[in-house]
Design a protein that fits this description.
This protein is mostly helical. The chain has helices at residues 2-19, 25-50, 55-80, 85-109. It has one domain. The longest helix has 26 residues, at 25-50. The protein starts with a helix and ends in an 11-residue tail after the last helix.
């Protein structure tokens, strides 16, 4: 679910970039709402991953959460701080890192340990 939400968030952000400033209020409100929702779901995934014994899943979930929150803060910095390039790069870069982390959660978390006996 987090992967899908991050993808949708990125697509809405791309639409905002294409629309340009002044940003359409509906796109901007959607982008902000999705950022908060993505951060919340990333926190949920992190809490569930902490309960697992599989370290790579916990690491990927932590990366996803930190990157999602960082991208949200970068977006806030972008809007409040005068739409500077460093804020834009932080928002975009951390959004991409959140996407990678969400993908890794699925890749590493989707594999179940085999209970079948190994061949002699």
């Amino acid at each position: 679910m987090v992967l899908v939400l991050v993808l949708v968030e990125i697509l809405v952000g791309n639409q905002l970039a294409l629309a340009g400033s002044p940003y359409p209020l509906a796109y901007l409100a959607g982008h902000i709402a999705l950022a908060v929702i993505v951060s919340g779901f990333a926190a949920h995934v992190l809490l569930r991953a902490v309960r697992r014994r599989h370290a790579p899943v916990r690491a990927a979930a932590a990366i996803t959460f930190v990157a999602a929150v960082g991208a949200t803060l970068g977006g806030t910095w972008f809007l409040v701080g005068g739409m500077t390039n460093p804020a834009l790069y932080a928002m975009e870069g951390l959004g991409g890192l959140a996407l990678l982390g969400a993908l890794l959660v699925i890749v590493w978390g989707g594999a179940r340990p085999s209970t079948a006996p190994t061949a002699p």
